[in-house]
Every structure is written in C-alpha cells, then in structure tokens.
Amino acid sequence: MKILVTGGAGYIGSHTVVELLESGHEVVIIDDFSNSSGEVLDKISMITDKEFVFYEGDVCDKNFLESVFAKENIDSVIHFAGYKAVGESVANPLKYYRNNIDSTLSLLEVMDNNKVYNFVFSSSACVYGVPDTLPMKEDFPLSPTNPYGYTKLFIEQILKDLSHSNDKWNIALLRYFNPIGAHESGLIGENPNGVPNNIMPYIMRVATGQYDKVHVFGNDYDTEDGTGVRDYIHVVDLAKGHIKAIDYLNSNDGLSIFNLGTGIGHSVMELIKITEKVNDVAVPYVIDERRPGDIDEYYADPSLANEKLGWKAEKDIEDMCRDAYIFAFKNN
Predict the structure, then answer these.
(1) How far apart are CA 198 and CA 128, in angstroms?
(2) Which CATH class for the 2-180+234-261 domain?
C-alpha cells in the first residue's frame, strides 16, 4: 500500500514512517518543517535503507495537496500535521483552531476528490478532559480543558459526521496518551524547535547540560508526590499502533476509536528520578506554578486496542527514559 503521512518528519510521524517502511509499505511524506527538520528524512533513510517520497508544503493548502494526490497513487492517509502544545494553545487559541481544523478539512476534501477513504487521525487523550474515574475508556464523556484538546474533539466530530454521511469512509481515531522515548538507533527522537513545550525533551536538555534545571509546573496536584501523573507510552510502541490501525481499516468499515496507552500512570517527578537512575545523570529541577489547562492525573484503558487491533505497548518507563537520553546525548 502507498500511505500518505502528513507531518511525517515530526516526532511521532517519523517513527511511524520507519515502522511503515519496515512493514513493506510505500510512504509519501508531507511536512512544512514548522516543528521538525529536514535532517530527520536522512535519518529515516539511514535506519530503514528504504526509499520514500517527500513533499515540503502546508496541509492547509488544497492546491498543493491536489498536486500531491495527482502524482501519487495514495491508498490511505495518516494525519499527524498540526500544532500540539497545550500551553501555547491557551495563549494563542486562534492559531490552533485555524491550523489544526483547516488542515484537516483541506486534507479530507482533497481525499474525497481523489476517492481515497482510509484515514487514521492523530487524536489525543486531551479530548476526555478531567475524568470522573480511571482508567479512561473510549466511551467516557468528552470535555477538553484547553483549545488544543478542543481542536482534536472538533475534528473527531467532523470525522464522525463524515463517516455517517458516506459509508465509503473507513476512519480510525487514535487517542494518544503521552509519547516519549526515541528510536533505539538514537537517530530520531523528540527534538522540538526552540524551547520544548513537552516535559521529556526539557528533561533531556537538562540531563545533557543544555539547560540548568527542569521547570516542574505544580507540586500540589492530588497525586502521590504532588506532581502531575500521565500515561507515558514509548513512541515506537505508539508508531506500531498506526500500522495495526492501517491493517484494521483494510478489513473493517466505518469509524473506530482506540486509546493508545500503557494503562500505567507515572508522575513528572518519577520521570526525573528514573532518568537520573537509568542514565547515571543529574537532573536538577525547580517547582513553578501550575500551567493553565493541566489536570491532576490520567491513564488509559488500552484493552480495546489490545482486542481489536492486536496491539499492546511493550516497552516500559525505563526503556522510554533510556532511549530518550541516548537520542538527546547523540544529538546534543
């Protein structure tokens, strides 16, 4: 199959491209490098020793997308492209609504024009908001706490409406929990442009001496050590979930929703301490005020993905912290 991956040079996208290529799929990547680097493409080639097609451009641009579809015989699409920082979305919501929703609408319209109906969407556990109980299941009420989460929720609704309107569409909504870690080669990993908005690359820049200390946003949450608890999942496990989703769409019609997580919660302080232990490094930190939009704790019930996709996270939190450090050290 030939699969279009938007945002394929990004963190999750690049790891998914590697898994797709190693599974025998043909891959077409679109990326505008707004939060990635062209060097990632070279590293994908080094890891896989396989060819792929790349187009630099904006997924909001329908004319650009039409030109790509005209050249490539695309069978399925995995859509990663979009802004993803919770804090930035609170400070600049219009940027997030415009980009994340426009890009998806443009892509879906061009897919429809070209009769391509298999679609995997990069959603988020943010759509659940503050859960009444844990673990979080796919049928929980949806109530995001920040604009980033609302962009994911609105796009999910668009996709549900699209699926109801036309039974040709086969759609998988993958609700990610918190991807961290890096490819075992150390060649690709999470390396955002500028100051990281996510916790793990910030920890890694402190661990490798680029920054003085980690800013831990809040230690008064209702958790065991007072810092926020999340379901961290190794990015390679997450990438493999997309391969399973593509395979699933080939034999299952309609729209399906899956949590991709480990089902285990870890705190920010645990991440710091485990990083120190497994890599024999010091990670100084300071406690700051909470960030708007963050919640105390969440972790997944991944049993539906286990059952329907045949997918299960295999790597543990020590693997995540070790692989993330190896990548950060090699790319310091």
Answers:
(1) 19
(2) alpha beta
> Phi/psi at 59 (nearest 5 deg)?
-70, -15
Length of the chain: 332
State the pLDDT at residue 205.
97
DSSP state of 7: T
Domain residue ranges in the chain: 2-180+234-261
Cis peptide before 192 (omega within 30 of 0): no
Residues 6+ apart with CB under 8 A from 163: 169, 171, 254, 255
Q: Which residues are catalytic?
A: 148
Give the Å distances, CA to CA, from 254 to 161, 163, 171, 188. Answer: 11, 6, 6, 34
What are 180's two structure tokens?
A: 């961290």
Q: What is the pLDDT of residue 293?
A: 64
pLDDT tens-place string over residues 218-228: 999 999 999 99
Give the pLDDT confidence of 52-88 residue by residue, as tens digits: 999 999 999 999 999 999 999 999 999 999 999 888 8
Q: How far apart are CA 319 and CA 181, in angstroms?
A: 7
Say which DSSP state 125 is in: G
Q: 0.85 cut: is pTM over it?
A: yes
Give tens-digit pLDDT for 81-113. Answer: 999 988 889 999 999 999 999 999 999 999 999
**In angstroms, what CA-CA distances link 324 with 203, 231, 234, 273, 290?**
10, 16, 9, 14, 25
pLDDT under 70: residue ranges of the chain: 293
Which of 142, 201, 147, 200 is CA-nearest to residue 175?
Answer: 142
CA 167, 257, 248 angle in degrees (round to 5)?
A: 70
> How are beta strands 170-176 and 229-230 bridged, if at all?
unpaired
| Distance, CA of 237 to CA of 320 (rounded, Å) | 10
Q: Give the three-class secondary structure for 230.
A: strand
Asked if residue 99 lies in contact with residue 26, where contact means CB atoms within 8 angstroms, the answer is: no
Determine the Cα–Cα distance for residues 199 and 148; give it in Å rounded to an integer: 17
